[in-house]
Amino acid sequence: MTAPGGRARTAAEERAAEEERAVEQALALVGRRPQVSHPSASAQQQPERAYPTDPGTPPPARVEPGMRTGPDPVQGPPASSPSGRQEAPPGKDALPGKGAPSSPHAHRAGATTWAGARDLAERLGRATRLPAHRLPLDRALGHVLAEAVVALTDLPSFDTSAMDGWVVAGPGPWSVQEGEGLLAGRGSTEPLLDGQALRIATGARLPVDATAVIRSEHAHHDEARGLLHATREVVPGQDIRPRGQECRSGDELLPVGTVVTPPVLGLAAAAGYDALVAVPRPRVDVFVLGDELLTAGLPREGLIRDALGPMLGPWLRSLGADAAEPRRLGDDAEALRRALLASDADLILTTGGTAAGPLDHVHPVLAEIGAELMVDGVAVRPGHPMLLARLAEGGPCLVGLPGNPLAAVSGLLTLAEPLLQGIAGRTSQDRYRLPVREDVQGHPHDTRLIPVVHRDDRVVPLHYNGPAMLRGIAAADGLAVVPPGGVRSGTEVEILDLPWASASPWTEGCFT
Fold it and tell me: What pLDDT score was predicted for residue 182?
């Protein structure tokens, strides 16, 4: 194919164009759906078609949004989970009734690229952004500004003293005026005549025609003669905060997309705001699947501890979401179906059950309730069986995370984090790259996410980075995005910061 201007398009440009078309198709499907409540259980018996057709007209051929239509990429051997289940390679399951073979575990189209999946998730989130509300300051923490904060007055709104001391007019020495002086909130507006001095407190309003403020420690009060002498040179305007020093009325203080942090609340209050127009924190339900999971004690008799339940709630809250306590559903397809239909969250996360094993119920249940599958497998290791769906007719988005812990982290960063950013109206973080300090082995065909720590101007890959391991990510402050084939020492790679990496110590509820 030839690009405009006669230049032949490269394979990379062809793939990028194909992914862009898939993203637009997925968002168009979402955008034209009416926003209604979840269908009832009885309505699930005959789910509506995604493509209305005239009577007697066969439905058009179906291409899953966000997927490549070419041949499957070559896949490495599947990784086993701690429970013995295997993470099926992407592109090996299809949903019944989705234009694919009827078996829920039949051959799927090729997996979405890692970059394409993240882009689609963020754009889908922005297409389903939550409506803004006017929130009192004491309820706005962690929300995202939907309207800019504009100064309602000059700050400060009058000339004030920056220090405790003496306010003087003209050259010294100065005749001291008797009385308690000027206090914050109780200052006189009487002008100060040349040669006069008056005691003043920090924050007090300056009298008209004041020249400077002399700090207490830089002045000598000769009480016997009633004179004030400066022990240092006095510069006109010193230790005075002039009106409008911080901002003028009408100045934009904070743009749309700013996360409301404690300093943002303080600035808004100083600027005269009682409430802010902001997008609420997205509500997230977490459903933990798997009969093999323990909630306490040591692993035993084929059972393992649930590592994702304790981890996902705090992680989601660090991303600015309002995450409910995880619900453990086991390997029960009917319980999963009921939970999905009953959820009123903005985003649902499931853990496990996204591959092709006999107890992996996520795909069949999504097909049963008429969900729209946007991403079904991502070309990334670990975590390739992750998925992104939109529940039927106005329902929430769903991110299906693999059951292996580090694979689930990969799904969280690839799909859930950018989706939440879009839903909440957050500004995307600037992407940056750093060189790696040693060679990093890559997957032959897929992107790899490797836990790293920052050391000076480079990142160091960490060991214990298998799909079922958390030891590496627990010590990491970011993940390196390693392209297929790996990289040599010194090569720059994209870095994904972990949300708590800049907080010391990190506490739950950090919104920066």
Answer: 87
Query: How many C-beta atoms lie closer than 10 Å to residue 159's C-beta?
Result: 19
CA distance 213 to 162: 8
Using the predicted structure, report yes or no on whether residue 252 has a pLDDT greater than 90.
Answer: yes
Q: Model's pTM, two decimal places?
A: 0.69
Q: Is there a contact between 208 and 192 (Cβ–Cβ < 8 Å)?
A: yes
Burial classification of residue 232, based on how many CB atoms lie within 10 Å of its CB (0-12 exposed, 13-18 middle, 19 or more buried): exposed
SS3 299: coil
CB atoms within 10 A of CB 219: 20
Phi, psi of 42, rounded to the nearest 5 degrees: -65, -30
DSSP percent split of the chain into helix, strand, coil, nearest 5: 20, 25, 55
Which letter, b or e, does each residue of 118-149 get, where b requires 16 or more Cβ atoms within 10 Å of its Cβ? bbbbbbbbbebbbebeebebeebbbbbbbeeb
Decide: 156 and 243 in contact? Cβ < 8 Å: yes
Instruction: Note the pLDDT of residue 495.
Output: 95
Amino acid identity at 185:
G
Chain centroid, CA 60 distance in Å? 37
- Report the amino acid identity of residue 128: T
* Residue carrying structure tokens 């926003």: 35
Task: Give me the chain's average pLDDT, please.
Answer: 79
- Helix or strand (DSSP H, E) at 411: helix 405-411
CA atoms within 13 A of residue 31's CA, in its CB half-sphere: 10
Write out the two tokens for 232. 């240092």
Helix, strand, or coil (residue 43): helix
Tokens of 9: 């398009």
The owner of tokens 């994209």 is 494
